[in-house]
Amino acid sequence: MDLQIFQDSIRQRFKLDFKPDFFRFLGDAVEARIRATEKDGLDHYLQIFKSDPEEISHLVNLLTNNETYFFRENPHYRLLTQRLIPELLKNRSYISEPIKIISAGCSSGEEPYSLVLALVEVFGEGVTDQIEVIGLDIDHDVLHKASMAVFGTYSFRGMDADFRNTYFNQFAGNRSVLKESIRQHVKFIQHNLADWPYPEQARGADLIFYRNVSIYYQMNTQDAIFENLARLLAPEGFLLTGAVEVTHHDIGKLTLKKDKALFYFCKETTTSELPAFLSDRSLPPAPAQDLSNKAAQSETKNTPIPATSKTPVTSDALTLEEVLALAEDEQWELALNKIDEQVTQHPNSPTAYSLKAYLLLQLNRDQETEQVCQQALEKNSLFLTPYLLLGLASQKNTDHTEAVQRLRKAIYLDPSCWLAHFHLADSYRETGDTEAARREYGVTLKLLENSGLDNHGLPFYRSHYTADQMSGICRDQMNKLALL
Ligand SMILES: C[S@@+](CC[C@H](N)C(=O)[O-])C[C@H]1O[C@@H](n2cnc3c(N)ncnc32)[C@H](O)[C@@H]1O
Q1: What is the DSSP letter of 155?
Q2: Whose alpha carbon is nearest atom 13 of ligand 1?
């Protein structure tokens, strides 16, 4: 039987370069489909294969290996509960958004359900409010099975009987059905991992289990899928492959890490990507910080900014320095032109994007401010300044409900940023939440008393008020609110 046409169509349609071994059973699979479709031999079947777009999927489903079971490669689940989830909870960049976990190539659901079970077992049922688990697979049939959550004994190879009795109910034919309290926390979506874009719900994953899938593919497809997954991952997110798959994925896209005998990948955000004035506070101050602090400390309108600094400066920092000087002089348009050059030269710098967004905000170019803030967040979602600027933009548009959301995110990233608390207080007051407004003016007051105006969170800050005057404003507001 000449099977080349099937091989070529599958490769083309799914953008997947399978290992030759994958097609070992192609002849059997085609014969099975001939029987299932009740066709009269190969030529007849070829007609339906060419005309029905669904048919190719049926054939691929027969070829893919869906082998899986609960708690397969068990040590990964220990790594998950003891190390990865605690780290993700600690570094969480979005308030009240759950940790997103993807099982990429989830087959009939044992892997994503094991993820929920492992977490519930260690952290209690309450953890389900803080996680979101999504299973992706190319194979529609296994996903259907996964969503039913009914499993035969073979799936329980890695699970002891007590555990099984706790979370499963008996089902017809010696099978077990997973309890609804666990089942409801996993969503399943059909998707070919080699395709981009991924479904919206999967974007910004914090943790990806991608195990025992790459084995089918030649190196170019392995790399393409891994690149997609690296892209899908949020900064500081983690990815686990099967033990035998680690080495061929160490291609420089993600950082390989080791915990005891286990390897995993991390999407590290390097310090150089973070703006000095917001990142590692133990580093010596960078020129931009010197400038912004001096500008803030001077608290006068036209204090000249010193052009030199004792700290060695890079050419990038020097140009930022120039832009800051222009901005300080209220030459917004000119500064914007300069920063555009910076953004072009350093398309991955969240600092440049944030300064650009700040300048756009000054020029009342609201829509562009929004866009550029989002771009800054794409570079680094742990960055306070874009959230703060987005909050200020919402306030300008008198959308105080949205401003509250955005400013709260900024505060989550840096609770000591007085300016974010001050504006949050204003927005709470506008929405009529007087208690929250008083509380936030109170926090602002304390921060100003402790550290003055320094930690404002913007690229630079020029206040017409001293720290004492700002504190006075907060006290006034608190008194007024107390009378309401
Ligand atoms: C061997 S199972 C592994 C299941 C689970 N990850 C585990 O380790 O137990 C591989 C699964 O990956 C799925 N798969 C293979 N290639 C895929 C692709 N390109 N996109 C999405 N799923 C794929 C298959 O359909 C199959 O269900």
Answers
A1: G
A2: 105
